[in-house]
Amino acid sequence: MASTVQAALRKLLPSQLPPSLSSLPGNLYEVLSRYPQDGIGQRVYQTRWGSKGIEGSYWEVTRTQLKCEGKHGKAWGVLVWKGKRVSEHDEKIPGGLKYRWSVGESRVKPGFQPLPKPSSPSS
Length: 123
Fold this sequence. Notes:
Blueprint: H1 2-12, H2 28-33, E1 43-46, H3 48-51, E2 58-67, E3 72-81, E4 84-85, E5 91-92, E6 101-103
Antiparallel strand pairs: 1-2, 1-6, 2-3, 3-4, 3-5
């Protein structure tokens, strides 16, 4: 019975799901458009922060202006960097289209090894 329901749903949905139903990272506006009120109140982070060893950092979204079905727009929020609130007032979130974004707080990827600091040559 369950398999027939699943098969019927698969026939109704397109082969490639629209960005609004995807759980994968995307540009900031695609990620925010998946949530009620265009993502206001969500915590979002750039996925590259984890590969740089930045942990516990995120933007808390305070307002949005989305257009083109959630693929473009503007978003404002408050930055929390490594657990400390940096911005006192909401500010425009930069890099909305330039980087990949996900919901939650940044996490360090397993197996992350920071680069050793270069030793200064002693003369």
